[in-house]
């Protein structure tokens, strides 16, 4: 589960749906995308809200991780109840073992708490929560059964950033 990166609130006349990423948001996508690449994490599928800031987050992560498929942009992930988002998960293709699921808070955190064995306080902007399930099909997902594999977010890199990631940001 991935909360989209920080958006730009200074776009005159832009609706909430049309807000793009801020410069900080773009930098955070590069940082976390580079981290995922460094760890060898590449999704089999990417499903994202169709809001512009979520699309830009999805596209950036797809490029940085070497994802070669087609990103699915869904209206069903734009500020809808966690139960609706869960239905989207249950309908995923069983040929895909790993999924980047990109959405908005507070619904995304509520979905994480619905699926996880642990309580998640809040998935911050550009936060990535990796859950693992012991199931063979997406349809078999059950609530409160997911194990937290890891959770990362941009502030973790404020004081230390691996050289391999720093090099991708032109900060070296």
Spell out the blueprint of helices and strands.
Layout: E1 2-3, H1 23-38, E2 45-49, H2 52-65, E3 72-74, H3 82-90, E4 99-103, H4 107-115, E5 128-132, E6 147-152, H5 163-168
Parallel strand pairs: 1-4, 2-3, 2-4
Antiparallel strand pairs: 5-6
Helix pairs in contact: 1-2, 3-4
Can you walk me through this structure?
The protein is of the alpha/beta class. The chain has 5 helices and 6 strands, in the order βαβαβαβαββα. The strands form 2 sheets. The protein has a 4-stranded parallel β-sheet, with helices on one face. The chain has a two-stranded antiparallel ribbon with strand order 5-6. Helix 1 runs parallel beside helix 2. The model has no long low-confidence stretch (mean pLDDT 92).
Shape: globular
Poorly predicted parts: none
Question: What's the CATH class label?
Answer: Alpha Beta
Assembly type:
single chain
Tell me what the CATH architecture is: 3-Layer(aba) Sandwich
Count of discrete alpha- or pi-helical segments spanning 4 or more residues: 5
At the fourth level of CATH, the homologous superfamily is: Phosphoglycerate mutase-like
**Element order: H for helix, E for strand:** EHEHEHEHEEH
- Helical content band: 25-40%
Q: Approximately how much beta-strand content do the residues carry? A: 15-25%
Overall tally of domains:
1
Class from secondary-structure proportions: alpha/beta
Order of the strands making up the biggest sheet: 1-4-2-3
Largest sheet: 4 strands, parallel
Q: Radius of gyration over alpha carbons?
A: 15 Å
* Average pLDDT reading: 92
Secondary structure: number of strands: 6
CATH topology: Rossmann fold
Q: CA-to-CA gap between the ends?
A: 30 Å
């Amino acid at each position: 589960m991935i909360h989209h990166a920080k958006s730009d609130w200074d776009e005159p006349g832009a609706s909430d749906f049309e807000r793009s990423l801020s410069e900080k948001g773009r930098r955070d996508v590069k940082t976390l995308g580079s981290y995922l690449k460094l760890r060898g994490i590449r999704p089999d599928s990417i499903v994202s809200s169709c809001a512009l800031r979520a699309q830009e987050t999805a596209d950036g992560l797809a490029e940085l991780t070497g994802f070669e498929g087609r990103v699915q942009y869904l209206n069903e992930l734009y500020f809808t109840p966690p139960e609706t988002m869960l239905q989207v998960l249950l309908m995923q293709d069983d040929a895909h073992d790993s999924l980047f699921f990109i959405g908005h808070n507070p619904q995304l955190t509520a979905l994480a708490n619905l699926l996880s064995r642990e309580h998640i306080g809040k998935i911050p902007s550009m936060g990535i929560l990796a859950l693992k399930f012991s199931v063979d099909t997406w349809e078999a997902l059950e609530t409160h059964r997911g194990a937290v594999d890891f959770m990362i977010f941009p502030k973790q890199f404020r004081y230390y950033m691996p050289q391999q990631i720093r090099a991708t940001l032109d900060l070296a």
